[in-house]
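Re: Re: ligand-bound prediction request (bumping)

Still looking for help on this. To restate: I need the protein modeled with flavin-adenine dinucleotide bound, output as structure tokens. Inputs repeated here so nobody has to scroll up.
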Amino acid sequence: MPAGQAYWRSLKNRLRGRLVLPSDGALYDEARGVLNARIDQRPAAIAYCANDEDVVACVRFCNATDLKAVCRCGGHGALGFSTRSDQLVIDMTALQTVGVDLREKTVTVGGGAFWGQVDLATYPRGYAAPGGGCPQVGVGGLAQGGGFGPISRSHGLTIDNLIEATLVTSRRGQLIKVSESEEPDLFWALRGGGGGNFGAVTSFTFRLHPIGHALTAGSLVYASGPDTNKWAADAKKLFQFYREWMRSPDCDSRLTLLPIVAFDDQSNPIFVLSVFFNGDWVEGYEYLFDILNNFGAPKAVNTSLGPTTLPGYTATESTTAWPGQSLYWKSGFLANDFPDAAIDTMITWFEHAPKPAQAARAASRIASRPAGAAPRAPDLSFGFIESLGGRIRDKRPDETAFYWRDQLFSFSFIGICERSDAALSRELRQWADNFRKAMEPYLTGAVYVNYMQEGLGDWKRAYYGGNVDRLCAIKQEYDPSHMFSFPQDLAQP
Ligand SMILES: Cc1cc2nc3c(=O)[nH]c(=O)nc-3n(C[C@H](O)[C@H](O)[C@H](O)COP(=O)(O)OP(=O)(O)OC[C@H]3O[C@@H](n4cnc5c(N)ncnc54)[C@H](O)[C@@H]3O)c2cc1C
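Reply:
Sorry for the wait, this slipped through. Here it is.
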């Protein structure tokens, strides 16, 4: 690994931003981290790019010295692939400009912005682009893998609304624009090919859609304290209701339901139905309670539903409570016709999630939740199903690189604990691996590329389905030296 002072000085001299090296001690330790505290990588250096020219300088430096690189935006990648040992981390987080063009109805976003910044810039003007649910998720990763959130059933995935992007590839070593008319193959690949494969993206331009100012959103909480039997019975009915409604022909694509199974502050299991209706709030409220009644759903013990805003809703999915915690994430698309046995399996495994002892929990950092947030304790595991369908299905599987257009249910669960608790971390890992194994009969084998995970046999097929060969060829064309490298990049065997 190259390490000499003169070597790094030649990069430092070309940057406006800061270059952090292992010799920087505590600063380096902070700079090498990502959201998931389980990730422990020691990059050769971290370049905090101050502008697009810095990104170009990093890519040229890597080209000249055969150094491998990864880009970093929000640091929310499940496997932490935006920080890699012995590689250069091209940190984009200073590229945060968000420019709204109301005449063209577009928003142009720096490759280091977080999705929450996009919502905050567009929503007060009466517009939104479909993004993720969590405001701290980086645009850089989200907008290359797919992007589903509160309004994607209404307007498609984040990538479906991408009009143009600017990036630096290793082949060119300069900024290039991609769109339907410029470099269309690369533009196709960026829309679903997964973050970090093709180059360092410095900006994204998205189409905007009008959005109302008082939307029905919030959560319905179903809990039964220590009475686990009642909880399990309610949870089963709710999963059944959710499944039947999602499959029914009158399933309104303005409504997005997000069933969450979690634990409350006393470690009792709870079922939370997070709700977002992209339309008039009175209509949404009536529609929601109509379908809950029609499908015989049980009664919630607590609700925080009301007229709210898009950023107000997504703030409830904030990850500000998570840094310093170790996350072990498992995911997969549930078959659209998953049976009751899948629901029973989910509930049983979830009830048996390993938890820290109460004393350890009390001593651990309990961050305050944003107002209206689901009452999930921040240091306990949870699981959820994200709803696809609606306008996401409008495109063919090969129209963008996101192949899984026909899927309805993206199922995930995350084993969470304090990083220092090695024994619990091991236990959670075993639990999560076995839970996923138990769910396999009900999964399609496909996995959302933005929820990358270890232990998948043919991960390329799982993420990309029938688009994999075209994607690999595009990776080879635009990154022939394999500069952008991580364990599940498209050039890996
Ligand atoms: C708490 C949480 C909530 C989430 N919620 C949602 C959600 O609601 N909907 C959804 O669809 N997904 C969601 N995700 C998944 C998320 O979309 C992916 O993890 C995404 O990859 C994160 O992007 P990032 O920029 O934050 O992460 P990073 O770890 O910084 O990057 C992820 C990958 O993208 C690459 N990358 C990042 N920026 C750039 C760039 N500018 N140019 C080139 N490559 C880049 C990195 O190299 C890395 O390979 C969530 C994840 C978490 C942890």
